[in-house]
Amino acid sequence: MNPLVRNVIAVVAGLVFGSAVNMGLIMVSGSIIPLPAGVDPSDMESLKASMHLFEAKHFLFPFLAHALGTLAGAWLAALIAVRHKMKIAIGIGAFFMLGGIMNVFMLPSPAWFIALDLIGAYIPMGLLGGTLAAPRDAQA
Questions:
Q1: Between the N and C ends of the chain, which has fewer C-beta atoms within 10 Å?
Q2: 16 and 74 in contact (C-beta within 8 Å)?
Q3: Long-range contacts of 97-101 (CB under 8 A, 24+ apart)
Q4: What's the confidence (pLDDT) of residue 140?
Q5: Phi-psi bin for 81: left (phi > 0), alpha (psi -120 to 50), beta?
């Protein structure tokens, strides 16, 4: 297979897989840490209106979803890619970071969460995913 085609497939697969991991964690989060009464997690307006009711524990799963979704997507993309594995993994992290930045503007969150999320969940997890997918002999 042409290396360029395989790298494009790697990026698409990484984005789809990372998004699926992210959504899966968000979907189960309410059953593990219940949201405040009356909050509809599928409605952005409901989330905006009730954000003041959220405690620190309610931000655990969004952070894990962002971090682990990015990690999973970067890992898979780097695993599939023929060349430029780390660049592709970091690119996956950057793509998800753009989504995180958009989310900051759509859904007001505490400053501590915004900082933690944007600094810790995207580029570092892209780097880690690329590192985990690298062959062992290439790391030595």
A1: C
A2: no
A3: 97/70, 97/121, 97/122, 97/123, 100/66
A4: 41
A5: beta
The DSSP code for 36 is: P
| Helix, strand, coil abundance in the chain, percent, nearest 5 | 80, 0, 20
Taking 50 as the pLDDT cut, the residues of the chain under it are: 139-140
Q: How far is CA 124 from CA 2, 6, 43, 74, 94, in A?
A: 29, 24, 30, 10, 10
What is the rounded average pLDDT for all residues in the chain? 93
Q: Measured between alpha carbons, how far is 81 from 2 in angstroms, rounded to an integer?
A: 11
pLDDT of residue 138: 52
Q: Which two tokens stand for residue 55?
A: 């405690």
* Contact between residue 108 and residue 52 where contact means Cβ atoms under 8 Å apart: no
- The domain ranges of the chain are 3-135
Question: C-alpha angle 46/117/101, rounded to 5°?
Answer: 70
